[in-house]
Amino acid sequence: MPGQYHLPASTDDRLSVIDRLSTLPFPLTEERPGSDGTWGGPGYHLAVLRESQDFWEDRGEEIVEAAESEIEADLATLAAVLTGRWGEPESVDLSPFLGFDNPDPDFVAPEPLGSLSGLAGAMQVWRLPSCDRWIALAIGQADPEWPIWLLAAVGEASALPQARPAPRAQ
């Protein structure tokens, strides 16, 4: 899947994807990722807004750090715009949605939290005041050799109350 997307090239393009997904009806069934890097299912949308190079050939520390820095800068830029619109985001720890500590053996995390928890440790969330949705940004990576992704998620408000705040950096 890496490298197959036609991703938004600028901050304005990325914001357009976020705006479109925030109002787009949720699919009735699970959708596979499209060539535009978006997919979804009942109650959610996900989008890859930016992806770094992959690390199959070279996973050197300097190369990975440079890629992480670029993705983090793009996240910070988008977060500043979204914060200007909707106020400070919540930081949500995604580790509980992996289910490792859940005593229920049949636990399945609601989407998109289940998918995001397999890619990222935390996300920044803005609750949309005009509807029962939230928007999140996260940085994730499916495997150390794969690209680092800047991800956007839109979900139903009902999926988020189960979330716990992410631990604050000391």
Automatic annotation (TrEMBL):
Highest taxon of source: Bacteria
Name of the protein this chain belongs to: SMI1/KNR4 family protein
Organism: Kitasatospora cinereorecta
